[in-house]
Amino acid sequence: MQAKPEHAKTDTPQPATIAQVAVPRPLHGVYDYKIPHNTAGPSIGARVRVPFGRAMTIGICTGLAQESAHKKLKDIVEVIDTQTMVPDDLMHLAHWMTGYYHHPLGEVLATLLPAAARKGAVAQIAPGDWWCVARDEFTNPRAPAQQALFDYLKTHGPCRGKDLVAQNFKRSTLRNLARAGAVETWQSDNPIKTPTPDNVPTPAQENAINAIVASLGQFAVHLLDGVTGSGKTEVYLQAMAPVLAQGQQVLVLVPEIALTPQTVRRFEERYGRVGVLHSNLSDHERLQTWLKAKSGTLPVVIGTRSAIFTPFNNLGLIVVDEEHDSSYKQQDGLRYSARDLAAKRAQHLNLPVILGSATPSLESIYNVNRNRYRHLLLPHRAGGARMPSYHLVDMRGESQTDGLSVPLQHIIRQHLRAAGQVLLFINRRGYAPTLLCKACGWQAQCSECDAKMTYHTTPSALRCHHCGLRVPVPQTCGQCGQPSLMPVGMGTQRTEAGLARLFPDVPIYRIDRDSTRSNKQLVQQFDKINTGATALMVGTQMLAKGHHFPNVTLVAILNADAGFCSPDFRAPERTAQLITQVAGRAGRAERPGEVWIQSYQPENPVLTRLIESGYAGFAELELKQRIQAGLPPAKPMALIRAEATNPSAATTLLNEFKRQLAVFTELELLGPVPAPLARVANRSRHQLMLVAPSRPKLHQGLAHLSPPKQARQIRWSIDVDPYDSL
Ligand code: ADP
Ligand code: ZN
Ligand code: ZN
Q1: So what's the architecture of 637-720 in CATH?
Q2: CB 303 near ligand 1, within 6 Å
Q3: Spatial distance between the Cα atoms of 641 and 291, rounded to a whole number of angstroms
Q4: pLDDT value of position 445
Q5: Which ligand is nearest to the CA of 477?
Q6: pTM summary value
Q7: Distances (CA, A) of 238 to 10, 195, 228, 231, 329
Q8: Tens digit of pLDDT for each residue in 32-42?
Q9: Is the fold of 203-258+272-382 the same as that of 385-432+489-626?
Q10: How far is CA 294 from CA 247, 249, 311, 571, 689, in A?
Q11: Among 3.60.15.10, 1.10.10.10, 3.40.50.300, 3.10.20.340, what is the CATH number of 385-432+489-626?
């Protein structure tokens, strides 16, 4: 290596010669690489291509330095981005997640990036294809082509570039008009619209909007606790207005886009330029939305869980709709909670977050009780709709057909006669959860899992809902060989068949993962239902996710008990949320609604409390019990899971972790025990649960874990704040 020439020693800072790079591998720490001479080094947050092991990989530059403690460094092969790909605030979030979720930085950064960016796609915004006028007037007699195009756009509103070309306008004319500032371009499937007028807010809405607007520019978490149909979405829309007027951006998280097309539509109708991030986007489209949000040209982004990682040029507000929803928690890989990250990001950026729900999570209620979150209440439905009334059907001794009790059949008939729509909820897809031999009691089991096969009729098959295995339906018993197999229990397909026999003239819509394979199908189905004609709907929890069915007058919950039987400590909370949300689909417009609940345990305290004092009453009691039992949210929890084809390998690893944690005497360690579903896809699953007196104690313990060498052969993970303790 050549000696540096003397004149290089000036006051100007020396260019960095070393880049620290986080690579997408399950390894902690960052790696040093040399920046080759005569090449511009990466900026922090830029993607770089580097040799790693025997392969090339794409990592993120996380730091720059003049020297390294290591010798024999490899060179960076390519600096992919001239600008940063991961802006400061996301880099900050990534570092925070590394500490909180005990997950390697390189993998955190890889999770955060859209797939196309991870694979090295160029970070360039593709030219737009929607065009509209940027001002009211434009006169240029010397450029008749420009004048004609401007006038066309002014009368027709936003148009696609290709449609303008089809009208014999030229791309070059568009570009000239854009240069003159007379038109603007926009790439989106949604044209820019003139805002629809606001509803006049109710006093409760107004109070909430004022509180949120007063907190703009500061960190605050608002729990918008509003009964179903109380106008939470209207509050989001109006609270956003001053943010957008100041040129700032808004991020809206929703549980599942396909299930809430109306919500998305309302944002589009009010604010036009909405970037929607959903699972059906191509990698290219997703990256484009990402880049546009980053550059600041996209004022509103609506998306599901991973949209929490969208970069913004100037973010002003975050909304998390249906904050209690389980879909905000990633259940594999990096097990983050988008709701919790929303609060973290807002804190770092000094801006408010709205967490909206009719059934807030006990975590959020706990935070309200400790004055960490502000409580904004919308106790009544907007627009004069009334809350539905609740009724119980005691199923003990009641005769039934395909899961429908005689009283329920009567009520359904009444509502159909009055031209209402009826929604039936059963949280099980398929025809029946078990296929049983009447002669010997044998049940069809999955060969790969400790689970029963679900019997499906359309198409006919036995399917395992855990590993996806499908086999033909056997004609004879697998044990005694008798042709005496019968389906036991209820699923959506069976309810559908039963309804078709009882109400042959009424159209039936089944809404579950099997019936609605594409988002488009689902939206078409919702549109048909919302024409308002008499109809029966049967579906799973997909029906509970915020969809608005204005003509539903009866909601029936066919088997309320199923959810309460689970050993998971969150089961009562989840079931109460589900029942309340499904019930909330009833009577959302002028016609009052009724909710009928079938139960074999009508005295179940959770159920009676819910019916008598609503979700708030239930939540108060349930939270008290959690606090008494020393469970989350009162005490933080983590779950270490391990699975292997050899069960003893998994337990040996967990026992080693338990031994390492034993020095932290304040940690409660439970296990290792087999997971309630102990074998899935032929792998044996075990878990070790940690409960700590405080967050720092939990993190101290988890940070101390050092996996032994043999851990590499085993799939294991740390889940901080697990949603499913099963
Ligand atoms: P939520 O999000 O709480 O379920 P929505 O925002 O969907 O409630 O509101 C329910 C219905 O009430 C919608 O049809 C909405 O347009 C209407 N609505 C909301 N706020 C008002 C208001 N202030 N005046 C009249 N109608 C309203
Ligand atoms: Zn048998
Ligand atoms: Zn299986």
Answers
A1: 2-Layer Sandwich (3.30)
A2: no
A3: 36
A4: 92
A5: 2
A6: 0.88
A7: 56, 12, 18, 11, 28
A8: 999 988 888 89
A9: yes
A10: 14, 10, 5, 39, 39
A11: 3.40.50.300
Over residues 302-309, mean pLDDT: 95
Distance in angstroms (rounded) separating the CA atoms of residues 237 and 287: 26
Q: Which residues pair with 393 in a beta bridge?
A: 598
- Tell whether ligand 1 has an atom less than 6 A from the beta carbon of residue 201: yes
* Ligand 2 centroid distance, CA of 446 (Å): 16
Tokens matching residue 325: 């929803």
Ligand 1 pocket, mutate which of 202, 207, 234, 322 (most atoms under 8 A from CB): 234
Of ligand 1's listed atoms, the one at least distance from the Cα of 378 is 3
Q: Token pair 């997408």 is at which residue?
A: 24
**Per-domain boundaries in the chain:** 18-118, 130-185, 203-258+272-382, 385-432+489-626, 637-720
Q: Is 385 in the pocket of ligand 1 (CB under 6 A)?
A: no
Distance from Cα 187 to the centre of ligand 1, integer Å: 30
Task: List, for residues 189-246, the tens digit of each pLDDT value.
Answer: 555 555 667 889 999 999 999 999 999 999 999 999 999 888 999 999 999 999 999 9
Which atom of ligand 1 is the closest one to the Cα of 546? 4
For residue 448, the CA-to-ligand 2 centroid distance in Å is 21
Minimal-distance CA residue to ligand 1 atom 25: 383
User: Is residue 707 in contact with ligand 1, taking CB distance under 6 Å?
Assistant: no
With beta carbons less than 8 A apart as the criterion, state whether 152 and 146 touch.
no
Higher pLDDT, 361 or 117: 361
From the CA of 678, how far away is ligand 3's center (Å)? 11
**Beta strand segments in 349-410, E:** 352-357, 374-378, 389-394, 400-401, 404-405
Please tell me the residue having the least CA distance from ligand 1 atom 23.
201
Going by the DSSP 8-state scheme, the letter that residue 312 receives in this structure is: -
Q: Is there an atom of ligand 1 within 6 Å of 584 CB?
A: no
What spacing in Å lies between the alpha carbon of 470 and ligand 2's midpoint? 21
Q: Mind listing the pLDDT tens digit for each residue in 96-137?
A: 999 999 999 999 999 999 998 888 888 777 766 778 888 888
Beta carbons of 38 and 9 less than 8 angstroms apart:
no
Nearest CA to ligand 1 atom 26: 383
CB distance 228 to ligand 1 below 6 Å: yes
* Alpha carbon of 449 to ligand 3 centroid (Å): 4
Most confident range (mean pLDDT) of 10-14, 582-586, 721-725 is 721-725
- Please indicate whether residue 205, judged by its CB atom, sits closer than 6 Å to ligand 1: yes
Quick one: pLDDT at residue 9? 47
Sign (positive/negative) of CA torsion 448, 449, 450, 456? negative
Dihedral sign, Cα of residue 513, residue 514, residue 516, residue 518: positive
CATH topology assigned to domain 203-258+272-382: Rossmann fold (3.40.50)
Output the CA 589–ligand 1 centroid distance in Å: 10
Q: Is the minimum distance from the CB of 231 to ligand 1 under 6 angstroms?
A: yes
Q: Is 457 exposed, middle or buried (0-12, 13-18, 19+ CB in 10 A)?
A: middle
CATH topology of domain 18-118: GIY-YIG endonuclease (3.40.1440)
C-alpha 75/C-alpha 51 separation (Å) is: 8
Q: What is the mean pLDDT of residues 130-149?
A: 86
Averaged over 364-373, what is the pLDDT? 97
Residue the block writes with tokens 């001794």 = 397
Q: How far is the CA of 272 from the centre of ligand 1 (A)?
A: 19
